[in-house]
Design brief:
This protein has 29 helices and no strands. By secondary structure, it is an all-alpha fold. Helix 4 runs antiparallel to helix 5 (89-101), helix 6 (106-119) runs antiparallel to helix 7 (125-141) and helix 16 (295-311) packs across helix 17 (323-333). The termini are far apart.
C-alpha cells in the first residue's frame, strides 16, 4: 500500500477501531509518530463513526506529516474526500476542516474554516477546535491581528477535549502568533511554558518546535545569546524547517556572522516547505543587504521576497519577517519615495493606532521621506517614531529609528543632539550584540565630529574638501592647485566616500563648524 492510498481494513468492528485509535494516540503522545501513522494507515478511517473519525483523522495527518512530509496531508485528504463524497454533511464538514488547514492561501483557508464551523456536529469537538485555530491563524495572515474572541472560543472547546498535541492548544496559538503581530512578551511566556511541558513529557520533536519559535522571539527581542542556545541542535542539520532557518538567519545577521549566515542560506528546507523556504532565504538576503545599506541589492531581494509573501497570501508584516520597513527604506534610497509612502500608509492602516511597532516603523519611513524637503519636520516625525518604539520590545527597530534621527540631527548641524541619539543606539547594540547596526552607528557617529572625519583624509583630500565646501568649483580648485579637473573630482569622490556622504551640500553642512573657525583664524 502506498503512502497516499486510502487506509482500508476488511470489515473492522467499531470496538477494534476504538482500540486502535486509542493505541495511535498513545504512540503519538510517546513521540512514536511512525508507529501512530502505521496503526491508523491500516484502518478504514472514512468509515469510522463521527466521534472516532474526529479523533483519528488529525492523528493520521500529523503523524504522516512528521514522517512523510507536509505534502502528505493533501494526498490523504484527497483520498478521504473521494470516499466521503456521498457521506452526510457532518463528515464533509470534518474533512473540510482539515482541507482548510492544508490550503495555502489564507483568505481561502478562512472561507473553508468558516464553512466547516457552520456544519460541524457536536460529536466532533476536535475538528471544531482545529477549525477555530485555522481561522485564527488565517486572520493573522491577512492582517487582521490576533483575534481574542476566537482565542477564547478555542480555550472553551479545549475544556471539552483531551488534546493529543500541545502544538494545537490555544496557548500554542498565542506562542506562535503573538510575536508575529508584535507581542513578544506574550509569545515568550507561552512558548517557555510549552517548551518546559514538552520536555517534561519527553516529547523532543514538540519541544524543538516551541524552541524554534522561542528563538525567533528572542532574536527579535535582542536576546541573541539566548536565541542561539535554543538552536544548538540545528547547527549543521539539514534539511531544516523555514522557521528554524528564519531564527538561525536572524541571529547570524544581527551578530554579523557572515559565514554562519551564508550557511543558513545554503541549507535546504523540509519537503513541502519549498515556497516558505524560498521566501525566508530571499527575505534574509534582503535584510542583510539593508543592514549593509546596499540599497539596490536590498530593494531587489526584498521586492522578490514581498512577491513570495503575496503568493502565499501573507499580508501581516510580522508574518513577512517585518521586511516592509526595510523595503520602504531601500525604495527611498533608490529614488522611489512614493512606493515607500504607500508602505507607510499600509502599516498605519493595519495598526489603526493600536500597534506601536507598526506606528513606529511607519513613522521612520515618513521621517526619512520628509528629510529631503523639510528637515525640521523630519526630525519631529522621527522623534515620534522613537517614542512609539521605545516600549514596543523590538530593540533593533528602536535602534534604526534612533539612527535615522541622529542622521537627521547631523544634517541639521545639531551635532550634540545627534550624538545623544546615536549614543543611545550604541548602548542598545552593546546590550543586544547587534553588530550589524553597531557598524552603522559607528559610521554615523563619525559624521557628528568633523575632527575625527578629517583625520581619515589625506592632506590633499582635506584641502580640496575645504575648498569645495567654501563654494569653489572643480575648475577653480584645479587651477589653484595646478592639476586637472579629473584629479580634483577623483580626490573629492574619495573624500566623500571616507566621510560617508554623497554631495557638496552634505560636505558644506559637515564642515560648517570648521569653516567658521577658519574664518576667524588667519593662519588656517
Amino acid at each position: 500500500m502506498t503512502a497516499g492510498a486510502a487506509p482500508r481494513s476488511p470489515g473492522p468492528s467499531p470496538e477494534d477501531d476504538a482500540s486502535e485509535v486509542s493505541r495511535s494516540e498513545a504512540l503519538f503522545h510517546a513521540s512514536d509518530y511512525a508507529g501512530a501513522f502505521d496503526v491508523l494507515h491500516a484502518r478504514n478511517i472514512p468509515a469510522m463513526p463521527i466521534p472516532l473519525l474526529d479523533r483519528a483523522l488529525p492523528i493520521l495527518l500529523m503523524s504522516g506529516d512528521a514522517t512523510l512530509g507536509e505534502e502528505f496531508s493533501v494526498t490523504v485528504l484527497d483520498d478521504v474526500e473521494r470516499q466521503t463524497a456521498d457521506a452526510a454533511a457532518p463528515i464533509a464538514s470534518i474533512v473540510r476542516t482539515y482541507r482548510s488547514e492544508a490550503t495555502a492561501e489564507p483568505r481561502r483557508r478562512a472561507v473553508l474554516a468558516t464553512a466547516a464551523l457552520e456544519g460541524l456536529p457536536a460529536e466532533a469537538p476536535i475538528a471544531r477546535h482545529r477549525a477555530l485555530a485555522v481561522l485564527l491563524a488565517a486572520k493573522v495572515d491577512i492582517g487582521e491581528g490576533l483575534d481574542g474572541h476566537l482565542l477564547a472560543q478555542i480555550e472553551e472547546v479545549e475544556r471539552e477535549i483531551d488534546l493529543v498535541a500541545s502544538v494545537d492548544s490555544a496557548l500554542a496559538q498565542r506562542g506562535f502568533l503573538a510575536y508575529q503581530v508584535g507581542q513578544l512578551d506574550e509569545s515568550r511566556t507561552a512558548l517557555r511554558l510549552l517548551k518546559r511541558k514538552a520536555r517534561a513529557d519527553q516529547q523532543p520533536f514538540i519541544e524543538s518546535v516551541f524552541a524554534t519559535h522561542l528563538a525567533t522571539v528572542d532574536a527579535y527581542a535582542g536576546r541573541l545569546a539566548a536565541a542561539a542556545a535554543l538552536l544548538d541542535s540545528y547547527r549543521g542539520e539539514t534539511p531544516v524547517s523555514p522557521a528554524a532557518a528564519r531564527a538561525l538567519g536572524l541571529i547570524a545577521l544581527r551578530a554579523a556572522e557572515d559565514v554562519a549566515f551564508q550557511e543558513v542560506l545554503l541549507q535546504p528546507t523540509l519537503q513541502g516547505s519549498a515556497i516558505h523556504g524560498a521566501f525566508t532565504r530571499r527575505a534574509l538576503t534582503g535584510l542583510a543587504a539593508a543592514r549593509r545599506e546596499e540599497w539596490r541589492e536590498a530593494y531587489s531581494q526584498l521586492s522578490r521576497a514581498q512577491m513570495h509573501a503575496r503568493s502565499l497570501g501573507l499580508e501581516e508584516p510580522g508574518r513577512r519577517m517585518w521586511i516592509d520597513v526595510d523595503l520602504a527604506r531601500a525604495a527611498i534610497a533608490i529614488g522611489r519615495p512614493g512606493e515607500a509612502a504607500r508602505i507607510s500608509d499600509n502599516l498605519e492602516r493595519l495598526s489603526a493606532g493600536a500597534r506601536p511597532i507598526l506606528d513606529g516603523m511607519a513613522g521612520r519611513i515618513r521621517g526619512v521621506i520628509a528629510g529631503s524637503d523639510d528637515p525640521a519636520a523630519s526630525i519631529a516625525i522621527l522623534e515620534e517614531s522613537v517614542a512609539a518604539l521605545a516600549g514596543a520590545g523590538f530593540p533593533d527597530q528602536l535602534a534604526l529609528s534612533l539612527l535615522e534621527l541622529g542622521r537627521a540631527l547631523t544634517r541639521a548641524e545639531r551635532y550634540t543632539d545627534a550624538r545623544k541619539a546615536l549614543d543611545r543606539v550604541r548602548v542598545l547594540t552593546g546590550l543586544t550584540g547587534d553588530r550589524a547596526i553597531g557598524l552603522l552607528v559607528d559610521r554615523a557617529l563619525r559624521l557628528t565630529s568633523s575632527d575625527a572625519l578629517l583625520a581619515a583624509l589625506t592632506s590633499r583630500e582635506r584641502h580640496i574638501a575645504f575648498a569645495a565646501a567654501r563654494g569653489a568649483t572643480s575648475r577653480e580648485i584645479a587651477e589653484a592647485g595646478f592639476t586637472s579637473i579629473r584629479t580634483v573630482e577623483t580626490q573629492l569622490s574619495s573624500a566623500y566616500r571616507k566621510l560617508g556622504i554623497t554631495s557638496r551640500a552634505q560636505l558644506t553642512v559637515l564642515l560648517a563648524d570648521h569653516l567658521r573657525e577658519r574664518a576667524h583664524d588667519p593662519e588656517s
